[in-house]
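hi! just following up on the protien thing from before. the input was this:
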Amino acid sequence: MLNIYKSSSLLFPLLLIMSSACGGGGDSEDARNVRSVWRGSLTQQSDSCGTRSAVVPRIVATSGSFTHTVNQNEDAVDLNDGNGTSFLGNIVGDDGFSVDAVTKQDNTVSSNVTCDESQQIAYVHIDGDSDTTANVTLTISKDCSDGTRCQVVSIGTASRSNVAIIPPQDDNDASTPTSCSTLAERQYTGDSGCSIGQVTTSTNGNNILLNPLGANGASSFTINTTDSSVATADNMELQIMGETGYSCSINCTGQLTFTLECFQEGGTTCSEKF
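and the predicted 3d structure came back as:
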């Protein structure tokens, strides 16, 4: 059985679909139906962590069977692994979803190095709302204080016997605003709605640094004093999708999820979920 240790220190996280304003995929009403109880198995394929896999206890079994209970609220998805850990994420593209969780922090691997462990579970090839099969990838990442990063990757398949609608859990709703001051410092992957892709976040008081924000490099966002779930970019002439003159803000919806919103005066807008 796939075992994941419970983390009580963090809520849980994300990715996802381009908004119609950016000319991306369909709106949330057209999100693929992924609700159900999925059962399957995984087999480890690679491990770049070397000795650190042995020194730091892994947060999951990388091979074996699993049962995932998946809820959905439009394009927001939450997954429960049956072992006390919840994951948050989103529909990705038109045939799957991705959910994330940070489950262990500051694991000492030597006298000078600690590593944070996180994991991502991605389902793909759900080819219709009533499709009962999917391919699954589990990626365990270790981000270490000496600047190194390694991963353990497992792949497998899953199936669902029905497509029953499971009511979404209100306390796990990935669309609920939360203070940007609690945004976890880590690497995030977006849906490329604004052509950003990957950023690493860090916080300093009332500021959040996204590095790199595409061609802009490290960019600072100041948390709104009246609505702490929003932070606005200090630079109002950002380069987005190859063009300059954009103003951007981030909307925080969890400790591991946020949305970047950018607009150009008299021009285009875009949205990218992380």
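The longest strand covers residues 96-108.
Residues 6 and 95 are 29 Å apart (CA to CA).
cheers
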